[in-house]
Amino acid sequence: MNILVIGSGGREHAIIWALKKSAKCGKIFASPGNGGTGDLAENVLIPINNPEEIVAFCAENEVGLVVIGPEAPLVNGLVDQLVKANIPTFGPSEKAARLEGSKEFTKQICDKYNLPTAAYEAFTNADKACAYIDKMGAPIVVKADGLAAGKGVVVAQTTDEAKEAARDMLLNNKFGDAGSSIVVEECMFGEEISVFALSDGKDVIYFGSAQDHKAVGEGDTGPNTGGMGTYSPAPIMTDSLQKQIMEETIIPAIKGMKGDGTPYTGVLFAGFMVTDKGPRLLEFNVRFGDPETQVLMARLDSDLLDLLYTAATGNLAGKEVRMKDEAALCVVMAANGYPNDYEKGSQINSLKDAEGLEDVIIFHAGTRKDKQGNIVANGGRVLGVTALGQSVKQAQTTAYKAVETIDWPEGFCRKDIGWRAVS
Ligand code: AMP
Ligand code: GLY
């Protein structure tokens, strides 16, 4: 079967790498792809906002499955357009993608189906939001309702900081439409965990867990990023915690969406705070995480194509996700300056040497191949240096050995990915 994967990140490279192992996998197209996907797939450029062109491409190239990586096309309803044209597509419909597209919608689903989460109120009026913040006190969390590229959440330590964030969003248009309505919620404390589950709209199966490192600096300091590194499995994920999360949150959410006439198809990525009262939902995402996918795919021992296709076509019942017993850890190498301004175009050398190390997989994110075939940086997060090991510690040692091997003075990484799991 030929497959079209939409996206250009490390997540998409990891998905393509895993799809490629399937005996049923034919040709893969990546749109737009990156310098790494080009070795496994044909990179093509189909305008994301032009569903007709995507449909025509699929017909011409006998594409039997489309996999959509990032959230924006999902929230904008690309799946609906492709499904209407009878193209099996992995990802939720526009209505189901509101689970990521609107924080208030998710909170309403939590209320309706009793999913454990932080107490909250939603506002479009800044004075009312500020009055609520004063009433609740700090610390308190202010969230833009819509998509804000991971920057729309402020965990405020003082009520002044929270009120400023609320005003920035509601009055000063800081996130445009995404901030024209906000959620103000209770601050929770504990360790964070990312949980992934596949659904075909009816059935749901657990995919795996991971922990991310959102801050740019060591010791979780500095501004937040898309994610600077991950490991899987999350050592805090016990069998009983997994059961609790599935039974209290994931399964009721999938059942509720089906009952509401907006069945959820695709991967549901749920972020939790594991508090002393139990796991509490922080957010839903309607796609695989980046860089969580890099470690999940490194560990996956099942046929990804079979899983994604059966999820897309309503036949997930009876399927299971097997993971290797080994741990995986991914260190993100980013361009100097990221998440602020950074330069593109610097050359990255010795990648082949790093790739040649045992248990190492290099997933590309913001890279491209220049005319001479050299890999050059083409984005903020550039490489996901991933390793398998008998423990998170061993995977960490191997991943950093690979990082040392890569010759790229214009890039940096956090030196402490995995610290929670190894200390
Ligand atoms: P979100 O995009 O909603 O997951 O928020 C981004 C990050 O903000 C999370 O990964 C948490 O670190 C933090 N966060 C969000 N909501 C809360 C909360 N209610 N209490 C504490 N931290 C939070
Ligand atoms: N790494 C976090 C995310 O993909 O949203």
Fill in the keyword field for this structure:
single chain, 423 residues, Rossmann fold, Dna Ligase, domain 1, nine-stranded antiparallel sheet, five-stranded parallel sheet, 14 helices, 23 strands, globular, binds adenosine monophosphate, binds glycine
In short:
The protein has helices spanning 10-19, 51-60, 71-75, 78-84, 98-101, 103-113, 126-136, 159-170, 239-259, 292-299, 304-312, 351-355, 392-405, 419-422; strands at residues 2-7, 28-32, 42-43, 63-68, 89-90, 120-123, 140-144, 153-156, 182-186, 191-200, 204-212, 215-217, 221-224, 229-232, 265-275, 278-285, 327-335, 347-348, 360-364, 367-369, 375-377, 381-389, 411-412.
- Which ions and ligands are bound to the chains? adenosine monophosphate, glycine
Shape category: globular
Residue stretches low in confidence (pLDDT < 50, at least 5 long) are: none
Topology, number of strands? 23
CATH topology description of the largest domain: D-amino Acid Aminotransferase, Chain A, domain 1
> How large, in whole angstroms, is the Cα Rg?
21 Å
CATH H level of the largest domain: which superfamily?
A: ATP-grasp fold, B domain
Report the mean per-residue pLDDT as an integer: 96
What is the CATH C level class of the largest domain, in words?
A: Alpha Beta
CATH architecture tag of the largest domain: 2-Layer Sandwich
